[in-house]
Design brief:
about 55% helix, about 130 residues
Length: about 130
């Protein structure tokens, strides 16, 4: 038995439930790895290579599968390339410093020369142990 609404109130039909939320797209794991490697290369120095590789692979997978993480993949790529340029520049600068400082240092072969003013003093050789 259905009841009618009280006098003076309007009848409203039953409400429709809200549609369910669409499923959340997963985030690409390689995009996360690219971003982590891109950030970590400023501490470790050489994770720029995996950051670049993972970033390119992640972008390809994201275009193919529709996963999330495009921004993380691009950020990992940018950090990887910037870090790579910085590491290469540091290596070149260090090599230049070593080459320049290597030509300024003279290497003497043999015994060191005696200080000025001391002549005629001979130092006897030290016998080997057991002699």
């Amino acid at each position: 038995m259905a009841y009618s609404p009280p006098p003076g109130q309007q009848y409203y039909p039953p409400y429709q439930p809200y549609p369910p939320y669409p499923p959340v797209r997963p985030t690409n794991g390689l995009a996360i790895a690219a971003l982590v490697c891109g950030i970590a290369q400023f501490v470790t120095g050489f994770t720029f290579i995996p950051a670049i590789i993972c970033g390119h692979l992640a972008r390809r997978q994201i275009r193919r599968t529709g996963e999330q993480g495009e921004g993380m993949a691009v950020a990992g790529l940018i950090l990887g390339y910037v870090g790579g340029v910085i590491v290469i520049m540091l290596v070149l600068v260090m090599a230049l410093v070593v080459v320049k400082s290597g030509s300024a240092v003279s290497v003497s072969h043999g015994s060191p020369a005696p200080p000025p003013g001391i002549t005629g003093i001979t130092i006897p050789p030290v016998p080997a142990p057991g002699n």
